[in-house]
Amino acid sequence: MDVAPTDALPIQGQHLSGWNVLPGGTQICLELTSVEGNVHRIVLPFDALSGLMMTLPRMLQSALNERFGDRSMRVVQPLGIWHIELHEPDSSLIMKLGTTDGFEVAFSLSGEHAVSLGTALLDARQDITQSLARRPN
Fold this sequence. Notes:
single chain; alpha+beta; 3-stranded antiparallel β-sheet; 2 helices; about 30% strand
């Protein structure tokens, strides 16, 4: 169905005011509070919300690029927790990263990616250590 942009009434969201998983776990309800103070509920299937989660970082980066015109700007969160576990069926690793305020994301790592990441972290540690050693007091 084709809908002209002027046919849809936008919701000017102020903030996410709540969310809950609906019975069965296949849908999630998001509650958005508008600038007028009204609460709007949007129900999305699990797969659509998962797709949105994957798209949000690009959306935020595009907004930063548009806003500041400086492609070096990044949305960065401080790391609060990290956890690595072995995924038994295929011997891959699952690396979970999280912030102190509860955002978490998990990645599956092959052995090759795990070695590459470990090497990069060790190299970065050496670079940081050398940089600190050269810094005048």
